[in-house]
Amino acid sequence: MSAAHAGGATVAELRRVSVVLGRGEGRVAALNRIDLQVAEGQILAVVGESGAGKSTLARSFLRLVAPEGGAVLLEGADITAMPERRLRRLRGRMTMVFRSPGDVLNPRMTARELIEEPLRLHAPRGTDRRAEVDAVATRLGLTPAELVLRPGELSPSRMQLVGLGRAIVTKPRLLVLDEPSRDLDAAAAADLLALLAGLREDGMAIVVTSDDIANVQPVADRIAVLYLGEVVEEGATADLLRDPLHPYTQSMLSAHLPADPSRRGRRIRLRGDPPQPEDRTPGCGFAPRCPIAESRCRSGAPTPNQVGTDRRVACLRVLEGTSRIPLSR
Amino acid sequence: MERPVRALLRRLGVGLFLALVVVLTSFLLVKLDAAPSDVLLGGPTPAAEERAQLVEDYGLDRPAFVQFVRYTIRVLRGELGRSWLTGDPVLGEIMARIPATLELMLYSILLGTLIAVPTGVAAAFARNTAEDRTVRGASVLGEAMPPFLLALLLLLVFFRWLDIAPAPSGRISIVLSPPTAVTGSYFIDSIIMQDSIAARSALAQLVLPVVTLALMVGATLTLLVRGAMLAQMDAPHFVYARAQGMSREMLTMIALRGALPTIGAGLATQSAALLGVTALVEHVFAWGGVGQYGLEAMARADFAAVQGFILVSAAFAAIMHLVHALVRRIARIRIRRA
């Protein structure tokens, strides 16, 4: 674990967290020994394909799923085995924005009532809830006219803002957003990122997941790349984008058009389909699709290795410096 | 035509068809035996004129199809024949026993639901813990237990050993006379007649049979409630509510609201099938209801009575499903309005 993270004290941490979903025949390892932390005033982006375990990871930070192994920490306190009754009191300090707000917001409540509800649960007696809601609405750019509308009468991007309003009205220390820009158009997604940058200034620790690195890269301080329930690479954003070391990160980044048209990027095309956790083979999870996999990759599973001062990469070839996919034929 | 009306008519149509199948089954019951129908319907030793009367009434000398039509017409007119044992009309005998059975079933369903919903909810919240496993184990045991065995066990403990339950001698103590019939429920009628001694006795007699049936109903229903709750708990809006830090009570209401249709359907199915279980329990407690009547008729080869019992059971099941369908429809209309 690097101590060189930007920002201050660690707010939330996953320590070797493994999560198994389903039961009996349907048991699948959704997350495998995840090590991640996020500090105050820091935005951690978690990127990966659908099925990589992003939502489970997001929920793990808030102890909405019970890990099979490892520990979940909030502000230094171990909440792994904390009973739901006690967790409930912390839920104003760690909040979440779910993807598809239309599925989770109560259709009968107005935007104002929705944003106010967490205050009813968590704010101390005597709080001026109306003023708090107004302050949040102003910050998010929700107009008074919108506050009397119900979710069905709002556009997806405005609905998502109501979801964000609910999540920040209790002034949490940790804010987790699960694919918040999924239903948003490009302009609304950019606005959302600007809002997140503002919340970071308040000292909030923010975790945001996305299937598209472009959606989060502009504001992310650190990026963790998730593949098949494992963090295959993690590092500071600029550093990781400049020199991606894991073959999967390289292929993922090569799928984007380069910002500089003169630097024509070569697309690394992966063989096979995005994997499902139930098809996990022994060895490195990425080996079946990796262009530079060797026979040892299929037998021994790599553990995340510290590379340099501030990067972790789970690839057997990274230690020899041969994990870069050659771009010449 | 309005959609609800059409749907209801269609349901009635299906119901009529099913009713015909039931009547046919009941009709064939007498035909399946090698012995001639008049002998079966007239008891083991029918007199010659009795046999002649039966042949005349049912058209037993005519082709089977004609016999079936005649039988159907008789059923429609409420003529279910006479029991050879008592010589009384079967319909009257059954009607006189329906209140006893209904009372038993109603209380059992109520008590069973009162047991099952909180237990199932608690098990769902405690998913895969020791508490959950205990509930599941007990429920499976309850489902597997034959009703008469459970009834006998309860009698053994509470009547024989602890001596706090009354003897299984029917609906009221044998030294008391039943209250004047108003609703048909001895307990309620005693209260109406302001006879506290009779009321207390009627209530005491109800306890063990109702507990037996409630445990049977509750066992199956608990698993159903648990499953329906778990399905709701995986839904996004429930996880969201949890993330919000809502209290256990609020979360229960949210999940229960979504689970209600499933629970209602299960309850209806169970109630419809409850008469068979009730029959065995009635027998043990000498309850004197429809179920016991049907069982004894089978044991004595009282064919007219058995036929009557089949028809009444089917009618009861049909009514239960119809009530369920109506409740669902009303609930759906309310949801649409909201």
What does this structure look like?
The complex is a heterodimer of chains A (329) and B (338). Chain A is of the alpha/beta class and 329 residues long. Chain A has a domain at 10-93 and 172-242: P-loop containing nucleotide triphosphate hydrolases (Rossmann fold). Chain A is 29% helix and 22% strand. Chain A contains eleven helices and twelve strands. Chain A has helices spanning 54-61, 84-90, 101-104, 111-122, 129-140, 144-147, 156-168, 186-201, 213-216, 237-242, 247-254; strands at residues 10-21, 28-39, 42-47, 69-74, 77-78, 94-97, 174-177, 205-210, 222-227, 230-236, 305-307, 311-313. In chain A, the strands form two sheets. Chain A has an eight-stranded mixed β-sheet, sandwiched between helices. In chain A, strands 2-1-4-5 form a four-stranded antiparallel β-sheet, covered by helices on one side. In chain A, helix 4 (111-122) crosses helix 5 (129-140). Chain B is an all-alpha fold. Chain B folds into two domains: 3-76, no CATH class; 93-173 and 204-303 and 313-337, MetI-like fold, CATH 1.10.3720.10. The longest helix of chain B has 38 residues, at 196-233.
Which descriptor suits the 3D outline of chain A? globular
Multimerization state: heterodimer
CATH topology of the largest domain in chain B: MetI-like fold
Number of helices of chain B: 14
Q: Which term fits the overall shape of chain B?
A: globular
Euclidean distance between termini CA atoms of chain A: 37 Å
Helices and strands in order:
The complex is a heterodimer of chains A (329) and B (338).
Chain A: E1 10-21, E2 28-39, E3 42-47, H1 54-61, E4 69-74, E5 77-78, H2 84-90, E6 94-97, H3 101-104, H4 111-122, H5 129-140, H6 144-147, H7 156-168, E7 174-177, H8 186-201, E8 205-210, H9 213-216, E9 222-227, E10 230-236, H10 237-242, H11 247-254, E11 305-307, E12 311-313
Helix pairs in contact in A: 4-5, 4-7, 5-7
Chain B: H1 3-32, H2 37-41, H3 48-58, H4 64-76, H5 90-125, H6 130-144, H7 147-161, H8 186-192, H9 196-233, H10 236-243, H11 248-272, H12 274-284, H13 290-299, H14 303-337
Helix pairs in contact in B: 1-4, 1-14, 5-6, 5-9, 5-11, 6-9, 7-9, 7-12, 8-9, 9-11, 9-12, 11-14, 12-13, 13-14
